[in-house]
Fold this sequence. Notes:
CATH architecture: Beta Barrel
Structural class: mainly beta
Radius of gyration: 26 Å
Largest sheet: 22 strands, antiparallel, barrel
Distance between the termini: 35 Å
Strand content: over 45%
Oligomer: single chain
Amino acid sequence: MKTKLLTSLFLLLAFAFQGMSQKNATPGDKVFFTRDTIKLNEVTISAMRTVTPLKELPAPISVVNKAQLQEFSKTISADEALRLVPGLKVENGTDGSRVHLYIRGQGILTESGFRGIQVLIDGIPVNDPGGYCPDLYDVDWSVVKSVEVVRGLAASLYGANATGGVVNIITDNGGSKPVNTTLMGSAGSNGFWKVLGQVDGTQDKINYRVSYSHMQGNGYREHQAFMGDNFSEKINWKPSEKVQITQLLSYTSYFNQNPEGINLYRYETFGPKAANTDAIPYNEFHETKRLTGALIAKFDLSSNQDITAKVFARMNNYRETSNNGDDYKPYVNLGASAQYNLHLGKGTVKNLLSLGADYQTQTINEHMFAVPGEYQRDSNRVDSHWSRECFDLDQILINQIIKQRSIGVFLIDKLDISSKLHALVNLRYDNVYSSLQSNIPVPDSLNPNGSKTYDKPTWRVGLAYDITRPFNVFASVGTGFLTPSGDELYNNPASYGGFNNLIKPSTSTGVDVGARGDVGKVFHYDVTFFDIWSNNEFYRYSVPERGNNTAFYGNMGKSTKWGIETFVSYSPVKNLIIDAAYTYSNFTYTSPDSTAGHWLPNSPRHMLYGEISYTFLKNFSAGVACQWQSKYCIQVDDSIYNNYTIGQTYYQPGSVRSSWVSGYNLWNVDLHYKWKLGWLRGDLGLYVKNIFDTQYFGFAEPNNGVDYNSYQPAPGREFFVNLRLNL
């Protein structure tokens, strides 16, 4: 009944607007849906720290354009925005914006956020000095212009936090008119709704954009409600031909209840919507409030020299409650970078030499209060969607000051040997420092205070050869250096507070060989083979007496990661576009002997996302998408990796301890109608996600306790309607 009602409403409004738009449209008005295939010779990339044509870069790079970002109606999560990027996996087990992001096996172990992947928003890093990226809450995908994803070892560009790759998010600038206005509203299943307002434009030498959005939803599962506010402001000022200044300001407030994962026994007994037994009585939630300001300036010193400088400041208040405690982590993050570019040569032989430095510092004042035990909880407490209530005890488990600092210097040399052959060399040296001061008195023999410093050079060398337009080839070899992030370093298995003194940095060496090109105006392809060898690979484990939801980290040994990443875009006729991204991954440990040959966690062998978009009746477009993923493992311990059954336990009577999570196949459909009525333009969209109501897990975590692994069921069938108005 609900499906029929939404469909009928959509068609009724669409045909009503169809009559008005045809009546008021003038010749040449482009009010129909348009999305073209990628054209290699028209794309430039800034994620490699210089603005360079894609065909000249010896690296696997994917670009998500504005049309792809606007095709889905929810527009709140990275799993929608980055769906067509091969080699990249986004797990969303919360039905909101809290996601896990992996590239080529990096980021697969974190309990929240991710590490090993550099994330930039308009050139400003989201990662902290240790390389950890807490979330993507600062991104409102509705106002993003494009996303550039560099896959593979990019540590020689951005340091120890870019072993897996780079995600460069570029937001919209203002329009050409003095004042433009955008209004957007979305609503859908599980109580979801979102509203957005934006004003932008160009006045003399100033281009500006200001936007605000609010979203919230009940979530698919019990105790999974979320609510977020996002303010974003961007001003581009060009006081002279030689000076460009960009000012950025954003504020993010995000709250989500945390239902936690559940074991298979609870999943099979109470269903996919059940929360963990601890989630509701302890009112487990995450709350983030963050303010970021930045200035970016480019100065042209002469016709062949320029300098780009960036400074930013970020203030963050983070709180997380659980059965382990009530944890407060306010912090201040400051950073700056500078890059000097020298352009040499004439004709076809040219050289671009860049020298630069990055600096970041961060201070965290962490306090964790103990919470009542299982038999001390207030069972009469009412659980409401937005409650921040938590019963703190007087006991303080953690009271410490964490300081982090990173310094990196780099050299980039791009040599155009001819008009078709291009070489690129990156060199970098990083120094990452972390210190901890505990304010809880303990005997000297147990003093957790201390500091750690990690430093290492990294490099990358590559060639790109633009043989013909249909055949552009590239190859590169490089190294990576991955330091333990905050969670990995400060989750101390020995005691509450202090350093994890057992973990070491991981190092990698990898190669990329690829080909890409355009065939006519209708076909684009991109194929990359990669092979990466890593030492001191990280792994994750639990300490049962510290709570089943607490993650600790160590070094497993060596691994090899190889695979093939492919993307194709095909438009056989004018109004039809077929896109597909497929990744084959073979990620296994090679040592120690107990895990040799075992898959790395959360790394399926096969990932496929394909979609077909068709435009008809001038203003209508319809799309069908398929997402397929094969099985993957959670645990790497030999006895668990090879499944076995245990006897009676408190949590799972006669359960099967399996290391494997089944794959899934999802289908999505969308329908859009674009129209114009005088000075008003609009886009009305209907999106149905998981149309066949497939049950699958959106995220899984290892747990060595008696209740074993933790699974987060993903939403079933969902409906969303979106209306966008541009004035």
